Amino acid sequence: MAIEFTYLAxxxxxxxxxAKWYFDEWGTYVEDGSVESFQDKLQDYLNxxxxxxxxxxxxxxxxxxxxxxxxREMTIYPDKEYWLGGVYVNPDYRGQHIASQLVMHAEKYxxxxxxxxxxxxxxxxxxxxxxxxxxxIETQVNYRDxxxxxxxxVLTD
Length: 157
Prior knowledge:
Helix 1 packs across helix 2 (35-42). This protein has a four-stranded antiparallel β-sheet, sandwiched between helices. The chain has a three-stranded antiparallel β-sheet with strand order 5-7-6. The protein is built from four helices and seven strands; from the N terminus they run E-H-H-E-E-E-H-E-H-E-E. The protein has helices at residues 15-26, 35-42, 98-112, 128-132, and strands at residues 4-7, 53-59, 62-71, 82-89, 117-122, 136-143, 146-154. A hairpin with a 2-residue loop joins strand 6 and strand 7. By secondary structure, the chain is α+β, with helices and mostly antiparallel strands.
């Protein structure tokens, strides 16, 4: 297995599958959400040099996983500008540390974009994977009827 990390902008053919993954995972949290609306939203992420963007993990022609760098994910925190989100790994590839690699690639690329602080939200209230990668829990809140930990990481070269 030779996983390559690249951009959704360079592989837009993966939008339909990625939209299905995201809808299946998080669609219940989006009012009037549909696979089609997720596909439409992913068009905003077809960037390689500015936020928002999506980094993909691919194995040949197979989409393995994705991570997003985006603006102001949680409306209750308008002061928190940059967010990591949409971390998803194809079930056939789980257990191989691909999510960790995606997060680390996103962190590295955020630094290249001159982003010094990233935030995220996770339903894993102890921070899970992100805590292992050096993210710190800021607070826990109920957001859109879901208990989440809001985390942050200061990024340095």
